[in-house]
Amino acid sequence: MTCDSNPCRIFVLRDQKILVDMSTQPPAIPMQGTAEDMGLCLADGYHLGSRDGLDCHAFSVPSRTDSPRGMDFLGLRKLFGVLDPGQYAMAVRAFAVLNWDRTCQFCSACGSRLKRHAVILAKECDACGFIMFPRISPAVIVLVERDDKALLARSSRFTENLYSVLAGFAEPGEALENVVRREIREEVGIEVKDIRYFGSQPWPYPDSLMIAFTASWAAGEIAVDNDEITEARWFTAADLPKIPDKVSIARWLIDWFIEKHRKEYK
Ligand SMILES: [Zn+2]
Q1: 159 and 124 in a common domain
Q2: Whole-angstrom Cα distance, residue 223 to residue 153?
Q3: How far is the CA of 100 from the centre of ligand 1 (A)?
Q4: Predicted ipTM?
């Protein structure tokens, strides 16, 4: 039994893909009953919360599990813009919770096996009382403007001829504004000002929280670190290179920049 008598949606993860009912239009996360009736063995689920009046539960199934007929296991990138936004947001949460559950098994203070906390989303150690919460790794992502141009860079991690905005993880004890200044300075050697919050995006591969900012150039000329960044340039909105697809907040930042300058190059 996964839910009480209320109807609920079940988020079933196999490896890093989630079960989607492809027989509906648009495709949807299955309701309780549809997936279970098709022979999936669901146990030890997490209650994710409720959405649109439906309770949502997340379950992991083994790698060998076959897709029920009319359903498919798909990754989050493929589901962006396909699933209803509310279901997509809950799918992101399902990934984050189940990835944490899989990788957080033992107490980091004493090494004993952890058990789930009875009330909150956490695990606790019976041996020493330590409580471990889901890990979230904050990273900033920044669009820097200079006059009518935006700074885009090629990362050594990119496999194709793709340019994006700069990003980097926060370090312990570091304010986000400082992460913005430090990352930009380290990667391309310039100073920024007018740092403004733009928005955020959780990205559960495995546990990132992307926190986006805009900023203005203040001083310095581009000098790439040749480690994380291999090339960086200033681009106008009318002359952009290949940029990330619409699933990421990197693209939302660049789209904001394009929209801002749309009138100028029409
Ligand atoms: Zn312990």
Answers
A1: no
A2: 11
A3: 17
A4: 0.99
